Amino acid sequence: MLPVKRFVNFIEQNSLFTPANKILAAVSGGMDSVLMAHLLKAAGFNFGIAHCNFMLRGPEADADQEFTRQLAQQFGVSFHTINFDTQKYAADNKISIQMAARDMRYQWFDEISQSAGYDPISLAHHQNDTIETILLNLTRGTGIAGLHGILPKNGRLVRPLLFLTRDEIKAIITAEGLNYVEDASNASVKYARNKIRHQVIPLLKELNPNLEATFENNLRNFRDLEVLLNEKVDALKDQLLITDGNEVHIAIDELNKLSPKRLLLFKLLQPYGFTETVVDDLISVLGKHAGRTFENAGFTLLVDRGKLIISPKTGKKDTETSIGQNDTEVVYNNYKLNLLHDDSPLIVKDNPLAVSVDAALLQYPLMLRGWQQGDVFYPLGMKTKQKLSDFFIHQKIPLHKKSTVPVLVNGNGDIIWVGGYRPDERYKVSNNTKKVTIFELYNYER
After folding, report:
1. What is the pLDDT of residues 25-79, one digit of tens each?
2. Does the CA dihedral 86-89-90-91 come out positive or negative?
3. Do residues 408 and 399 touch, judged by C-beta distance below 8 A?
4. How far apart are CA 76 and CA 80, in angstroms?
5. CA 166 to chain centre
6. Which of 22, 54, 327, 408 would staple 416 via disulfide (CB 3.0–4.6 Å)?
């Protein structure tokens, strides 16, 4: 007898779907998905069948496709099918055949669901699939999230057979005399999952004949632990992560109080794409090496004085912009610089984004650029030169922002103005000044 009551109870306990839903059942023609389709029909759910032909097994794959078509006709439900050039997709995207099949399959399921009004998408994973997934995740190092196995519900994807083991499914199929097709590649140990299925799990079952039940109990514990961890991390995010514009700041003193530090820091940084290897390197320099940076494709993490600064990467920046004598406006990264030439010795006051300089001292072309190692200037009011790096420290400019400060440079190499902060003493307006040039910065997003 089909386990319809257990099937329906599992669906209700996990809120997978209701009789009001229109379900898309992914059916390969194999034992597991065929049983799922029979259970959906016996329980009276409204569903259609979707089948993918990955064109990897020639006539055998075509026969699977035809078998599944006939199954849909037998049930009187809608049938959707597609042929994929899996090998070409894998080669074009430089991924494995299995990953290519997965990507194309789920993308197509989404397209069919949207066009035909299905929700959710029902998949035929069972308890042994969960065990295989956990063992694979352990070998690949996916962290604690990889220990919860295959979830009964993940977004639109539902798995109503997770209450059954592979042996139970085989016994039901045999007892009910249900026809199905066997994919010969399932017996091959060429793929990692099949190696675990055929070589690893049988050895584990020698040690523990009740392996599936043991894993099921462990899964409940792992999932509860993951919930606790996520709640802790969410609380830490509210407590430690400070948003400053498009940046996120985290106080190093607070990080050093975390326990366990490595795990919690990894979970805090994981949304920004930083790996456990980066976290290990980061912990080794916390509080010791200000200026150390870590990067990935989307973010830069800077160990600043007393805090971590996470900032998104932006497009390529201009390295420098030349300024001619007749220019009235130039653009440099997120800044626009206006130039005004005046015949009177005007002095700009109370505006850090504008400065008046003695026009007679300018040698064109001028240059607007970022800070460079070794830069020095004479800050206004001082008779001795100072390294620009030291000036930034005194101004408490964060390490990662010093490269964004626009520096106005004379044609002879002298720094005229550290934009937004301080002009150079040598170029100030004096009693001998006859004509001034006024520079004014505007910060904007292009």
Report:
1. 999 999 999 999 999 999 999 999 999 999 988 899 999 999 999 999 999 999 9
2. positive
3. no
4. 13
5. 34
6. 408
| Sign of the Cα pseudo-torsion (341, 346, 351, 355, in order) | positive
Torsion 219-222-224-230 (CA) sign: negative
Give pLDDT tens digits for 198-238.
888 899 989 999 998 898 888 888 888 888 999 999 999 99
Cα separation of 143 and 270, whole Å?
A: 11
Alpha-carbon 157 to chain mean position: 20
Q: Please give the average per-residue pLDDT across 363-390, as a whole number.
A: 91
Nearest to 188 by CA among 97, 300, 315, 114: 97
Are 23 and 118 contacting, i.e. CB atoms less than 8 angstroms apart?
A: yes
Q: How far is CA 403 from CA 68, 186, 289, 317, in A?
A: 62, 56, 19, 11
Give how far the C-alpha of residue 134 lies from the chain's centroid of Cα atoms, to the nearest Å.
Answer: 22
Q: Would you call 436 exposed, middle or buried from its count of C-beta atoms within 10 A (0-12, 13-18, 19+)? A: buried
Residue 333, CA distances (Å) to 36, 171, 365, 401, 411 in order: 58, 68, 19, 13, 21
Q: Which of 268, 270, 265 is nearest to 285 (CA)?
A: 265
* Beta-sheet strands, E only, within 174-298: 242-244, 247-251, 293-295
Kindly write down the DSSP assignment for every residue of 324-341, as one continuous string: -TT-SEEEETTEEEEEEE
Q: What is the dihedral of CA 92, 98, 99, 101, to 10 degrees?
A: 70
Residue 204: which residues within 8 A CB-CB, separation 6 or more? 211
Cα atoms in the Cβ-side hemisphere of radius 13 Å centred on 339: 21
With beta carbons less than 8 A apart as the criterion, state whether 79 and 73 touch: yes
Specify whether the CB–CB gap between 112 and 149 falls below 8 A. no
186 falls in which pLDDT band (50, 70, 90)? Answer: low
Count of C-beta atoms within a 10 Å radius of residue 152? 19
Dist. CA 441–CA 405, nearest whole Å: 11
